């Protein structure tokens, strides 16, 4: 059995939502803020689990550009000039399926560290 494959990746006109649809009919709408603060980049994830950073102040970030990377990922360019990290199809699938839990973990980490979304 093969993993679901994206059939459409669409940046909404407001530049704050990226919609990803897979060939198994799953569709996920990611906010730019969610994608920015959970970026798979080393800047956010670190090089080990204990190096993961909680990034605040990204509530108003937008996606300026979406570039394909081979046939396995996209690179996102954000208005805060963050543009590292490849967002793979598996990242979108797993993050989409676990979005509520990932977001709640992020909100809890912000609160624990005295940071805010704005």
Care to describe what's here?
The chain is an alpha+beta fold. The protein has a single domain (6-112), classed as NE0471 N-terminal domain-like (2-Layer Sandwich). It contains 4 helices and 6 strands; from the N terminus they run βββααβββαα. A hairpin with a 5-residue loop joins β1 and β2 (17-22). The radius of gyration is 14 Å and the shape is globular.
Structural class per helix/strand content?
alpha+beta
| CATH architecture label name | 2-Layer Sandwich
* Total DSSP helices: 4
How does the overall form come out from the CA principal axes? globular
In round numbers, the mean pLDDT is 95
Query: What CATH first level would be assigned?
Result: Alpha Beta
Name the descriptors:
118 residues, NE0471 N-terminal domain-like, three-stranded antiparallel β-sheet, 4 helices, 28% helix, 28% strand
């Amino acid at each position: 059995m093969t993993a679901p494959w994206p059939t459409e990746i669409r940046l909404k006109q407001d530049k704050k939502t990226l919609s990803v649809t897979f060939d198994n009919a799953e569709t996920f709408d990611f906010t730019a803020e969610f994608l920015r603060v959970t970026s798979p980049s080393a800047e956010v994830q670190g090089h080990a689990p204990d190096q993961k950073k909680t990034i605040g102040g990204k509530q108003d970030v937008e996606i300026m550009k979406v570039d394909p990377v081979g046939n396995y990922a996209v690179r996102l360019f954000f208005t805060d000039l963050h543009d590292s990290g490849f967002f793979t199809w598996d990242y979108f699938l797993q993050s989409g399926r676990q979005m509520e839990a990932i977001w709640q973990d992020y909100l809890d980490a912000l609160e624990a560290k005295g940071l805010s979304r704005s």
